[in-house]
Each structure stands twice: as structure tokens, then as C-alpha cells.
Amino acid sequence: MQEQTQELTVEELEWSTLPARLCEIKDIAGPQAALSLARQYGGSSVYVPVKTTAEHPLSVLLGEQAARAISRIFGGDRLEVPKTDSIARQLRGKKIQQLRQEGATISRLASEFNLSRRRILQILAGN
Known about the structure:
Layout: H1 2-7, H2 20-29, H3 31-41, E1 44-47, H4 57-62, H5 64-74, E2 78-81, H6 85-101, H7 106-113, H8 117-124
Antiparallel strand pairs: 1-2
């Protein structure tokens, strides 16, 4: 699933369906920073210094401006970063819908994504 999230663009996400903490990070530091943070640290916590430097891992990963914004809110604490599972599921659902519109059968989709036919139908129905 990790590889799939790297293909995801900010425009493809329905942020309202993602974890609240990820949305909070997006509001503080921007959507790209939130995605980068989730890809790198998802499912774990990261210490956020009170002041970041250009060399700090958060600055290197997110850029200095986004790292400073996160530091202003979470500085001195450990930030729990949500896993990217919900992002990967969202991408998978969009890909299933796209392939179905292109003519893929339910059986082919179930086989390709290693899901049951029932689950494919649920995804196509928006559940």
C-alpha cells in the first residue's frame, strides 16, 4: 500500500474522510506537507522541536515554512501521525471506479485487487 500513496495527488483526496489529525496538519502546514508527513511517519509519533532549523528532518522533509508552522502549534511535543491506510483505500477505490468505467468486470477487479466480488460492489456503490 505504501507505493500507492506515493502516486496520490492532493487534488485526488477527499480530506473530510481522512483522520482528523491529518486534516489538522493540512490546515496548519498545507496539504502537501500533511501527505509527506503521513508517508514518512504514518503510524508513529515524531518529536516536534520548539524551533526548527533548516537541517532538522522536518524542515528537510516538509520545507522550512511548513516545519515552522507545525512547530508553532506542536513544538515541544510528540506529534502522532496517522497511518496512510485511509489514503491508500481512497486511492484504491478511485482506481476501481476508473477501471470499472473503462469496462473491467467485477470478477477481474476482485482478482486484481485481491478483494471479494461483494467488496468490489460495495466500493462501486460508495461504501
